[in-house]
Amino acid sequence: MRDDLRGFLISMDLLFAIIPLTIVLGMVAADMGNILYEMEDTIYQSSNDRLAQDTLNTLAETSGNPPTWEQNGSTPNIVGLAQYNTNTNKSISDSLDPNKLALLTTTDMANLIGNSTDGFNLTVTRLTDSNILQSIGTTLPVGNTDIVRVNKVVLCSNLKSVTSLVGQIIYDGQPVVFSVNSFQTDSFTNQTYNYWILFVNTGSSTNSNATVTVNGNTLILNNTTMFHPSNAINSSFLLTNSYFSSNNVTLKITTNSIGSTMDFYIVQAPKSFTSSSINYNNVVPQECNLTMYLWT
């Protein structure tokens, strides 16, 4: 009799233990659809986050394939925006090439992103004045919560400096000659771009005079023409072979105020640009926000 009672009590304990478990399992089963949806949504959102970050890194840290795709106006197999150092054959990470940025198309971006999203927007905004250097893609949809935003700080400018002397020109009272790194041109770049001389006064330069020699052709500049306006290099001075060739450059500062300093640039600009566009803000790379949005 006692054994029967003990067995009965054990059965009752098991029953009471099973009832809450049964209720929990029933609730889980009833809400399984919502649980699976939340899991799928989390996984999908994480996938979009990773896609956006990978896309941004590819654009900012690589030069694309081929790495100099912008030089002949060709469509890249894989788009990248980083400047490419032809001397080291390496990309300059997080330093955007203005010409690549200008040539970037929605087709290039679609090939990079794939077809798993409904839209994108890529914007480059200068930090100092919020000036937008480039914006490509479509307007962000209103009310869409499945929007992924990624951002990184990069260096960028509106125009490309092909060679320069920065922080090296100090006048000590005697004429001084500076050897400037050569820059490359071919027939395509000469048809597409003009090349400008830009001096930036960084230390009270007055009564300045200089000569710039490109492939043996000399431009004589005085205080007025050195700084305002910028000076275009005659296209006949440049090499126009079917392949890229190096143009030799020499700079000579003949007179200036003692102790004065300046920076020197040769700037590549589309032929539609005028001399007023060849200035410090458009040429010298500055910190910018590279921001990308993806949505589904």
Outline the fold blueprint.
Layout: H1 2-30, H2 32-61, E1 64-65, E2 78-79, E3 82-85, E4 90-96, H3 98-103, H4 106-113, E5 119-126, E6 132-137, E7 147-156, E8 160-170, E9 176-185, H5 187-192, E10 193-201, E11 209-214, E12 217-221, H6 223-227, E13 231-232, E14 245-255, E15 261-270, H7 280-283, E16 286-295
Antiparallel strand pairs: 1-2, 3-4, 5-6, 5-16, 7-16, 8-15, 9-14, 10-13, 10-15, 11-12, 11-14
Describe the structure.
It is a single chain. The chain is of the alpha+beta class and 296 residues long. The chain folds into 3 domains: 2-30; 53-151, no CATH class; 160-277, Jelly Rolls (Sandwich). 30% of the residues lie in helices and 38% in strands. The strands form 5 sheets. A 4-stranded antiparallel β-sheet has the order 6-5-16-7. A 4-stranded antiparallel β-sheet has the order 8-15-10-13. A hairpin with a 5-residue loop joins strand 5 and strand 6 (132-137). The radius of gyration is 31 Å and the shape is elongated. The model is unreliable at 35-44 (pLDDT under 50).
